Queue: 4 jobs
Job 1
Amino acid sequence: MRILRSIKSLFQFQMVVLMLLVAPASWAQTQGQPGPQEVVSHLQETLIKSMREGGKLGYRGRFELLAKAVDQTHDLDFIARTTLGANWTQLSVEQQRIFTDVFRKLSIGTYAGWFKSHEGERFEFIEQQAMPRDQVMVRTRFVQSGSEPPVRFDYVLRQTNDGWRIVNVLADGVSDLALKRVEYRAILQRDGFQALIDMLKDKIVQTEQD
């Protein structure tokens, strides 16, 4: 199935977040700040909507649909800083702003490029586990139609002032954040800031063509 092949080939560079939760309360019904499972479920429900309405919405419509959900469920500022590590403090304030903005657009664009058609797939919650440093892992799997095997997706969340937010995703045990660290830091150190930004912008263009 095409979406699985796309995820497995593109996950080396971009992050993907998936989950279907059998929870009694939806995002809108949750009292107070949603818990980790509700946060991931909210994102996943939006991804499913993007898949089901993908043809009608087109890329731009899917991007707009997913943007709000991504902002509500991810700590993109934290992920951007962590991805660059010590290199982050060496950037100017304007460079930090530019990187975070492009990183956000790529994160949303990747989802919009992937989740554009629905062929009976479903998402299942497995369990929630406590992690060091007061983080939580929400474990899930993506069950596909046909003979394609399920894909495991584990989400690491941290508590922020705005509630629980996703800060890393592991697809079949492979950390998206770790892959980004290696790739982005290497380009930044070898070729400089503008080369990194140009590479990310190229990836954004590619998401529109997937």
Job 2
Amino acid sequence: MKKIIVLPLVALGLVGCTSVKVSPLPKTELIDRICIQKNDAVKVTDLLAVVQQRLQYHHINSEVFSTTRPDNCRYIMNYVAYRTWDIVPYLSSADFTINREGVMIASANFHLRAGGGLSLMKWRGTEYKINPVIDRLVGEQ
């Protein structure tokens, strides 16, 4: 009689869990505009557009700059994101920080444990992965 061991297969599937850690924007920070420093090293092509759209959803206007910070920017967002390959590239990790006048006041991290493992969710789009992170980061503005 052959026995099929199911437990290890289930355990492998659980390895692909998503980790989201957020230190949200304090409720006392009423942001209506934020400047985002473009990170040219990020190869997730739609990440910046997704972030800007989600900030707009929370009534936060955004401006992207590359090198010189605009004078009228009190709040700056920095980010980094990484892709992993499994047949095709997909977003596997992203970090965001919000600084007010040089002091970090909020941060968020999205990470697919073990690169997403066997989970088919790892191939979901950037919006699906990042919108909830931005929601928790900026809260209900």
Job 3
Amino acid sequence: MQPPSPPIAAVGAVIWNRRNEIVLIRRGQEPRRGEWSIPGGRLEWGESVREGIVREVYEETGLEVEVTGLIDVVDSLTRDVAGAVIRHYVLIDFLVRPVSGTLMAGSDAAEARWVAYDALDEYHLWTETRRIIDAAARMQG
């Protein structure tokens, strides 16, 4: 039997603008391919979490951002039919603000768009993604 892999460290960003909109991307890769989410991805070797979120946001959205706060850390577990864990991500989610660039889908994002906070229910987000966005809204005040 093969030993389990260690958890994969990844980052996510709630990008908020002055019009009370956030960036959502439609995932172009697994996990959750085709679903709407916040931008983010795996950390690279030797990269800090803050460097990773700035890089991932730029690659997926074309936006340069500034980190303004840590929102939360989330475990994403995928199980097989028998209930055994087959994938484990540790997602470190940040509140960020755009400083330059034009929003466009890049790298593994199939689409990217600004979405009004009041319209988020139309996007059928993973419950943890929605919880993170709502926590970011409370941080904004």
Job 4
Amino acid sequence: MRTRAILSATAAGLLLVGAACALAQAPKPQDTEQWTPVPRVVTPGPAPVAPAAPPSDAIVLFDGKGLGEWVATKDKSPAAWTVADGILTVSKAAGNIETKRSFRNYQLHLEWRIPAGVTGAGQARGNSGVFLAATGPGDGGYELQILDSYQNETYVNGQAGSLYKQHPPLVNAARKPGEWQAYDVVWTAPTFAADGKLTAPARVTAFHNGILIQNDAVLAGETVYIGKPSYRPYTSAPIKLQAHGDPSPPLSFRSIWVRELAGP
């Protein structure tokens, strides 16, 4: 009996050790966080008072008058974020919203503002994102990060202007909370063969407040919080805005427009 008890205890111990090793080897969010080198700060010009007017060939996605171009990501019902005084404010309870239309290659202009007096730190400070191709539910797709990165330390491939968890911005061009900021983005969609094999990766060039932050950056796949990015075939996709669940006050948007571009 004593021998059997010793064997049972040994087996139980081995199971516990195996479980501990499995937990230790399980992917964690921290595995894909990059903290250095820290992008240098470049101060942009003064924040614009008025929203930028779209060019003549643009598809206007938000001009301060309503959300007719947007739906809720979760069920495609009418988007339920707040529109007041020409400004669109995130409703975290309503969740992500995305465009009714799908796009392939395009130029995007997007203005956003972190509320003055925002609280929190790191990723819990004005967190949102624009998904340049919303290829899946929830937070599926390819994310350009929105965050208060004015004197707010976080991992560099998660700060404002990063292609989340893949490419830090070339510089930190963030304005203070309470000031309007702008992204201008050129999105080149990935291409796939008939069998779904990737033939050309996605590429992004982006400006933050008029300053180059991504220069023809090549993506390794869709944005993921844990693990390594990979590609799923798609043809065209909506543009999505994130209602992040961090506890800081919600941010706002204005002047969103897109120009469709011919493929490479």
